[in-house]
Automatic annotation (TrEMBL):
Keyword Membrane: yes
Membrane-spanning ranges: 20-45, 82-105, 117-137, 149-170, 190-217, 273-290
Gene Ontology BP, a term: transmembrane transport
Gene3D superfamilies: MetI-like
Protein name: ABC transporter permease
Entries under CDD domains matching the protein: TM_PBP2 (cd06261)
Limits of the ABC transmembrane type-1 domain: 82-287
Length: 305
């Protein structure tokens, strides 16, 4: 009996030691993942002259907010761009979730007669694309969305890959017996979907919602194609235009003394890092709201006991 107790004690000590080692490895890995962004924040708060003389350092000799002052010189335009991006992200994510969840639920049910047709239809769009010019003609001329906020929302609302993920989640996580019992009780399709399927599908919906949120927040290409009105320029597109202005001054600095003077007054490297911080920070704060269901949603289709 004493030998069994001793072996259990030794096993417990070994297990505790491995837990410490594994937690240490996980902590180091997490730090390595977070450190690049922290370093970007440090660079954005570094004085431009100090950065030019000392290079990149974790603890710079002189701190400065000049990069953020330069970016915020646009004033109301930057705040307006933030507002446009937030509106597009929120409305676009809601519309995307509604359309994708309804489409995926329909093709996940074996009772749907045209299930195979619409599944193949979605998969084909993943493999073939009409091209940039036809897409531009449809959005700007046929639908008349040019220089409207809907040109930033509707082209990204549907995604075939997200449909396939959510369809798999419905098929594996929503028991068919529950749906059949609800039908026997007289429930309709929309009642079943809203009251039974959606509450059971929160992990999958949170995963798709996070992907859609990231897609809308980081989108700048649609604004480049369809937006010419300054009031509708989103954040990513505006930061890209600021970066283009800096690059233009750099290229023409040798041809004009005025450009050279302007170039010397611009915090070039630190302003780029400040743009990265301004574009990334809000979405970092949004991630914890999805984290509760995100890991569970990523295990869609996993083997279950």
């Amino acid at each position: 009996m004493a030998g069994v107790i001793r072996r259990n004690k030794d096993f417990h000590q070994v297990g505790t030691g491995w837990n410490v080692v594994l937690n240490l490895i996980a902590g180091i890995f997490a730090f390595l993942c977070v450190f690049p962004f922290l370093f970007v924040v440090i660079i954005s708060l570094t004085d431009e002259k100090t950065l030019a003389t000392d290079g990149y350092r974790i603890l710079p000799a002189q701190w400065s907010l000049e990069a953020y002052r330069y970016v915020f010189q646009s004033g109301d335009m930057l705040l307006r761009s933030y507002g446009v991006t937030i509106f597009v992200t929120l409305v676009g994510t809601v519309i995307s979730l509604i359309m994708i969840s309804l489409y995926a639920y329909a093709i996940s049910r074996n009772s749907f007669r045209y299930r195979r047709f619409f599944s193949v239809f979605a998969i084909v769009t993943m493999l073939f694309n009409g091209g940039m010019i036809p897409t531009y003609m449809v959005v700007s001329q046929l639908m008349g969305l040019k220089n409207t906020v809907w040109a930033l929302i509707l082209p990204l609302a549907m995604n075939a890959f997200y449909i396939m993920i959510l369809r798999t989640f419905y098929s594996t996580s929503v028991p068919e017996a529950v749906i059949e019992s609800a039908r026997i009780d007289g429930a309709g399709d929309f009642y079943i979907f809203l009251r039974i399927v959606l509450p059971l599908s929160l992990p999958g919906l949170a995963t798709i919602g996070l992907f859609s949120t990231l897609g809308y927040w980081n989108d700048w290409f649609n604004a480049l194609l369809y937006i010419d009105v300054p009031n509708l320029v989103p954040l990513q597109s505006m930061l890209m235009r600021i970066e283009s202005s800096i690059a233009f001054i750099q290229q023409n600095s040798q041809n004009s003394s005025l450009s050279l003077t302007a170039l010397q007054s611009i915090p070039q490297d630190t302003s780029r890092m400040a743009m990265v911080v301004l574009a990334t920070l809000p979405i970092i704060f949004a991630y914890p709201f999805f984290q509760r269901y995100f890991v569970q949603g990523l295990t869609v289709g996993a083997v279950k006991e």
